[in-house]
Structures are given as structure tokens and as C-alpha cells.
Write a structure and sequence with these properties.
This protein has 573 residues and is mainly alpha-helical. It is built from 30 helices and 4 strands. It has a two-stranded antiparallel sheet. Strands 3-4 form a two-stranded antiparallel ribbon. It starts with a helix and ends with a helix.
Length: 573
């Protein structure tokens, strides 16, 4: 083993001596300086959040605890899924081309990769640990509880990374990875539904002894998984490492050239490359619809080219189900205490992303206009036909997300018994300075005052919340449907945009120089979607008592945004 390690060190030393990009002390100094600056910038807000969680004043509401734990479970599931998709064991292109197949010990060759994966897992675990403290709170012994949460978070992320490595070496571990993903999703659903409120309350007030035991067990389990993953480095097939290295090289090239648009091509091509399609004939149109279809001679040919987007979507039902399931994320963020502005941005970004995910055909038409011209179809009919599917998905997702937000805001708060008994409120009393009363009584008095304005109570809690906001559930969903054309127009503009123009000037601002090319590339598509959804955003922000004019304005602006973009894009092409 010593001889093998010496061989690997000799090869690494030989490569370092003849490398054109050797690491210098200046490079290490810049890296350390950037890390210290990041710690200094992020340390102040993190310390303020942790200080606010200390003591009984920092107790978290039960509903927010469930939403926070659900977000952490989804975050860990996302980390595990990304690690699984990325490889996660990969090397640089030169090492993968000849060092991987050399007679050297593969575990020693992949030593750098293992250390890099460990660092990534530790960084993600620290974020999870801070999120766990923010979700559960720290009633006492802040420092020890933060330390225990950090150990739990790092253990979870390291174990997830080790499980992703083991899944590449064995099919049995691959099954365990799928089970872990399913368990995390079930935990998220149970936590957000409120069924585990008692368990979460016990976890929030757990003694330090229990926290120490849980952290110790989690660290031991993650260490065991990490050891198994290190042993499995030598059993991972070379083709798996080579494929992951190729994907990593493409991502590195896109990041170095500041061309994020290339990432979509990488993901799409990697999914369909080498797959065997099992197509089935779809049922034909009904007779009445087929007759109406023939009355529009230009539509059948245009929709024939767009039909591939529908077939591509049908071939990936899991992706479609996952996309629609993410419509509950805005409501989850609202339960966790998200700001209204952030929630609006999340809904807009989510609807735009969902619409863009179904606009692959428009992206390929823009990348290869000669092939589109050979089809003998006008650019405007083809683009209009390709906008149908993004608009449909955006309507479904946005209306579901807005309906979830409406139901979340209309749901009455249910404080725990401990909070209702121990928390007090002060209200002025006649003839005295202040009088201390139970918080539950204060909340009841506030509810009575709201009821004098005509708000119902009891079984009509949902209608009461809608009356307070001025928007009913149907009106909120209708806003999502009417915003779909604008989101589809923004998605088409986004997927058809050109690469980043690095020849544009750099603007000097108070925060430093800002390159204009990446900024313009980033806002392309978002600008059109935001302008087209402006009436809906204003209505959701102000909650007018008569939303009819806003609905009409949203219908007009959404249709105008899509029609204007199709006409302008067809003319420019």
C-alpha cells in the first residue's frame, strides 16, 4: 500500500512540476482572504438570528416549526438528488482520460475527489444545522444547542453524500437511496400537515442530554457511511466516473465562460442520449374537433411541429408530477414566515421556470433557424403553437400556488397550550398603569374587534380570511390563469435569448463594477413576464375589495404580452 501511495504521489508531483497553472502563495492568499471576507459578511446576520432565538422570547410558533422542518427535509432531499445526478465522484478531464484507467490504486487516485466531496458536504451540513436551530428555536443553552444542531446537520449531509457515492457502486445502495428520498418527502409532508406537531414540540424543548445523544448517534452513523463510501471508491465502474467527469467538465466550461444557457442543453442532452424510446400511438381527435381543426388550414402544420413538446412531456410523467408538486412551496414558505415580497417573487419565478421547462422546442428552433425554415411553416404560427404548452403548465402551477397561499393565509393560527398558558399580554386598564392578562384572552379580544368589521368566525374562517384580504379563492386562482400568457411569453423570450454578450461595458457602481452583459442576459424574459403580470401583482399586493378591473387589466396585458412577443419575434426572425 505504501508503494502504491508513493506511486500516486510521484505522479501528482510530476504533473505539478510540468503544469502551466501551478498554484502559488498568492492564489492561496486570495482564497483565504475571500473565505475570511465571506465569514465576516455572513457572520453578523447569522449571529443576530441566533441571538434572537435565545431564551423564551425566541420560541418559534408550532406552525412555523412544522414548515421549517419540512423545508429542511426538502433541502436535504434536494441535496441528495443533486449529488446523485452529479455523480458525485468525478475528476478533471485529463485525469479521467488516463489516470483513471492506470494501474494505480483507484481510491488513492480519487483521494482529492473524496476530500472535495467531504468539504461540500460539511458546508451544506452547516447550513442545515443553522436552519435546524432557526426552525426549532433554542429555549436555553444557546451555544450547546447550536453546536448540537450543527453536528446533526453535518452528519445528515455527510451521510447523504456517502449514500450517493455508494449508490454508484452497488444497485442495493441505489435502492436505499430511493428509500431515503421517499422518507424525506414523507417527513416533509407530515411536518407541514401538522400531524407531527407534538413530536416537534418535544424536540424543540428536548434536554441537552437528549440532544447530545442524538448528535453522537448521528455522527457515528455518518462516519460509518463515510467509511463504507471510501471503501466503495475502488468498486465504482470507470464508465460512471468518466461520464460524471464529462458532465462536470461541461458545467465548468459553462461557468468559466459565464454561459448559463449551456447548462440547459447539457441537462437535456444527457437525459435523452442513449435512451430507447417506447412510443405508442395517441388516440385521434373526436370528429367534431377534427372538423373544426380542418377549418384552420394554418394551424395543423404549426401544431404538428409543437406536438413534439407534448410528447416529450408525456414521456417524463415523473418530472411533470414533481413540477406540479412544487406548487406547494410558496405556501410552505408562507407558513415558515416568508415576507410577502419574497412570496410574490417565488410565485413569479416558479411560474416562469415551469413555463420555460416546456419550451425546449422553441429553444431548438432559435438555435437552428435553418431547420425551422425547411419545415415550410411561418415563424409566427410555429411560435404561437409552441406557446400553448408553456401557457397551460404556467396556468396550472400559478393558480395552484396562489390558491395554496390563499388557504395558508386564511387558516387560523393554533398556538400550543404551553404558549397560551405562559405567554401574557399587557393591556391598559382604567385607573391603573397596565393589567396583565393571558395572551389567549388578548387574542380573543383582538378577534372580537375584527369581528365588529363584519368578519365571520367559526366554520366561516376561510370566508373571513378572504373577506379581510378582499380576494376570494376563485379570484386568486383566476389571476393565476390570466397571468399564464405573460409567463409563457417571458419563458419563450428567456429560452430564445442569445448567449451572454461579453463585449458590453462594465458599469461602476457603489457596490463595485457590474458587467452589463450577464445582467442583461439574466433579466431577459423576466422583464416581459413581470410587465405582463403587473396587474396581478398589484392586486395580490393591495387586495382590492373589487378585483374586477384588475382581472380585466390582467387579461388584456397577458394577452398583449404574448401576442406582441410572437408578432415581434416572428418579424425579427
Amino acid at each position: 500500500m505504501d508503494r502504491v501511495q508513493g506511486g500516486v504521489r510521484a505522479v501528482r508531483g510530476f504533473l505539478r512540476e510540468r503544469s502551466r497553472t501551478r498554484s502559488t502563495p498568492i492564489d492561496r492568499y486570495v482564497t483565504a482572504f475571500c473565505l475570511l471576507m465571506f465569514a465576516a459578511v455572513a457572520g453578523q446576520p447569522v449571529s443576530e438570528v441566533l441571538t434572537g432565538l435565545a431564551g423564551p422570547a425566541g420560541a418559534v410558533e408550532p406552525a412555523r416549526v412544522g414548515a421549517g422542518v419540512a423545508l429542511l427535509a426538502l433541502g436535504l432531499a434536494g441535496f441528495l438528488a443533486v449529488a446523485r445526478a452529479a455523480g458525485p465522484v468525478l475528476m478533471t478531464a485529463p485525469d479521467a482520460s488516463w489516470l483513471l484507467l492506470s494501474p494505480l490504486d483507484r481510491r488513492q487516485v480519487l483521494g482529492r475527489t473524496g476530500r472535495a466531496l467531504l468539504m461540500v458536504a460539511v458546508a451544506a451540513g452547516l447550513v442545515l444545522g443553522l436552519g435546524l436551530v432557526a426552525a426549532l428555536g433554542a429555549p436555553d443553552q444557546l451555544a450547546w444547542r447550536v453546536l448540537g444542531a450543527l453536528v446533526l446537520g453535518v452528519s445528515a449531509s455527510v451521510g447523504a453524500m456517502a449514500l450517493a457515492v455508494l449508490a454508484r457502486a452497488s444497485q442495493s445502495w441505489q435502492a436505499w437511496l430511493v428509500v431515503a428520498l421517499a422518507v424525506l418527502l414523507v417527513v416533509a409532508v407530515v411536518a407541514v400537515s401538522g400531524q407531527a406537531r407534538g413530536v416537534l414540540a418535544v424536540a424543540s424543548a428536548a434536554p441537552l442530554t437528549a440532544v447530545a445523544v442524538a448528535a453522537t448517534l448521528a455522527a457515528a452513523g455518518s462516519a460509518l457511511l463515510a467509511r463504507q463510501a471510501w471503501r466503495a471508491f475502488g468498486r465504482i465502474p470507470a464508465r460512471e466516473i468518466a461520464a460524471a467527469s464529462t458532465r462536470g467538465g461541461h458545467v465548468a466550461d459553462a461557468a468559466t465562460g459565464i454561459d448559463p444557457g449551456a447548462l440547459t442543453w447539457i441537462v437535456e442532452d444527457n437525459h435523452w442520449r442513449g435512451r430507447r424510446l417506447r412510443s405508442r400511438r395517441w388516440p385521434g381527435l373526436p370528429a367534431a374537433l377534427a372538423t373544426a381543426w380542418q377549418d384552420w388550414p394554418g394551424l395543423p402544420a404549426a401544431f404538428a411541429t409543437a406536438w413534439q413538446d407534448w410528447r416529450r412531456l408525456a414521456r417524463r410523467p415523473g418530472r411533470l408530477a414533481f413540477t406540479l408538486a412544487t406548487a406547494g412551496l410558496p405556501a410552505l414558505l408562507a407558513q415558515a414566515g416568508g415576507a410577502p415580497g419574497m412570496l410574490g417573487a417565488v410565485v413569479l419565478a416558479g411560474g416562469l421556470a415551469v413555463a420555460a421547462s416546456a419550451a425546449t422546442g422553441a429553444r431548438r428552433d432559435a438555435a437552428n433557424p435553418a431547420l425551422a425554415r425547411l419545415l415550410g411553416i411561418g415563424h409566427r404560427p410555429a411560435l404561437a403553437a409552441r406557446a400553448a404548452l408553456p401557457a397551460l403548465l404556467a396556468a396550472l402551477w400559478t393558480s395552484a400556488a396562489l390558491a395554496g397561499l390563499a388557504l395558508t393565509s386564511a387558516a387560523p393560527s393554533q398556538p400550543s397550550a404551553t404558549t397560551a398558558v405562559t405567554t401574557t399580554a399587557t393591556v391598559p386598564a382604567p385607573g391603573s398603569a397596565t393589567t396583565t392578562v393571558p395572551a389567549a384572552a388578548a387574542a380573543a379580544a383582538a378577534a372580537a374587534e375584527r369581528a365588529t368589521g363584519g368578519v365571520a368566525s367559526g366554520a366561516d374562517a376561510h370566508e373571513a380570511g378572504a373577506a379581510e384580504r378582499g380576494l376570494s379563492l376563485a379570484e386568486v386562482g383566476l389571476f393565476g390563469v390570466l397571468a399564464a400568457p405573460a409567463l409563457a411569453a417571458g419563458a419563450l423570450r428567456m429560452v430564445r435569448r442569445r448567449p451572454v454578450d461579453h463585449s458590453l461595458p462594465v458599469i461602476d457602481t457603489g457596490a463595485g463594477p457590474v458587467p452589463l452583459g450577464p445582467v442583461l442576459w439574466g433579466v431577459t424574459g423576466i422583464d416581459l413576464a413581470a410587465a405582463g403580470c403587473l396587474p396581478a401583482l398589484l392586486a395580490l399586493a393591495t387586495a382590492p375589495p373589487q378585483p374586477g378591473p384588475y382581472l380585466v387589466a390582467q387579461a388584456v396585458t397577458g394577452a398583449a404580452a404574448l401576442a406582441g412577443y410572437v408578432l415581434r419575434a416572428g418579424k425579427a426572425t
